[in-house]
Amino acid sequence: MDSKIIYASTPKENEKLPLQLLEKALPGRDHIVIFGAHIPTKGLLDRELDILLLSPSGIYIIELKYWKGKILNTLHNLQKSIRIQWPDGRVQDKNNPQLQASDQGRILRSDIDSKLIRDRSGGTRFRFKQPIVPAVFFTVKKSELEFTVDEARSSVPVYTMDTIRQLWENKPALYTEQELQSLINMFKIEEQKVEGNSFPEAIDEYRIEKLLFQRAHYSVYKAESEFGRKVFLKAHKIDPKLLKDQEQVLLDITKRDGFVSAKLEGNPYVLFHSNNFRFGQYICSVTMWQDHMTLEKIMKEKRSIADKIRILKEIFKAVISFHEAGVFHRDLHPRNIMMQSNGEIKCMNFDFSRIVGLRTVKQGMPDADSMYLAPELKPSEDALHQLDIDQHTDYYSFGFIAYEFLAGSKPYESDFKLSHLSLKEIHPEIDEELSFAIESLIHMTQSERDFGWKFLRDEWGI
User: What is the secondary structure of 181-217 as a DSSP string?
Assistant: First the structure.
């Protein structure tokens, strides 16, 4: 049988994308994820399991946690609770997910054993060949959650999005397809239909060829029209429950696009989408396809420092041209910057931009957890962070991109760990003043970024 996810209950919004990524990570055959199955417990309400993974290599019960920040304790099975520090600095006590997974494993084993006894006369042919394996799955990248595991006192393995395949890879097969199917049948699940971020086959007249990238608010695809024209297609998915609100967001974004288009008309660094249109549950826009490479891909290539600085100069010129026209991009990101086959730099996705003289539109803000996002754009209860959204937000994003491009790694991986090596320490051939200027751009305080921006304008003669 084909690998898939069976939804016994509806996942929360922050669980949908990790579940889709988990599904993509599964081998093509005989790996079944059951999400949200309910099992009875003695004298209590039914217990909902996060993830039950049935695979040839074993039966796994997985505790799902969408945590970011830093776990202050060393993880092991002998503690009831752990303490986590969130990216905004808050500290909170949480139940130990390793113990939760172990507890769920025991309840599940008891439930399956009782089902086997009841179903024995019906010819069920399943028997355990090893214990149910509990595990913890943090549905983030390892860089987004700091933690350490005391292996000597931990019988429950811990995984992130980067390592989850280790749960089933390179392990001998214990169960046949028929045995796994009989176990699925035992649960008698009424499968739920889940609307999430799944990739559509077609939108309006456009056939989707490839997902280019996905953000919290939208996806960008390579698509082809019915007449064979290649395009970028950007699609915001609408939540039916928030239809009225999201239509207002569409109106705000459309108005903003109109103002930005007028301000940047003829700008050689801009790649604009067409007017927005509505198709079913999607808010969409298209633009002509350009053979290109995103800066995200370019940053992974081996290039000389001189070549990297040449590319950064062109991006710097682009951002200055936006500012001189009274536009602040606010969402500069390696995926939003591309180099065409002729070497020209283009920037796209101005949905979240600010136009001088107009009020800041809060709807449709970029991803709050993007490391490229200036700290003053991120939600905060601290009034000191509610500063004017001006050119300093782009200073920060450019500085973060420049540091990562030159250093080969991000200056820091989380908002609570800000220490980093200087560019000069990483690459001695980089001029010390240039190193200091770029690092000043990623300062938490807006005014501290001015020095770096002015230095680069003078140094690069722009």
Answer: HHHHHHH---PPP--SSPPPSEETTEEEEEEEEE-SS
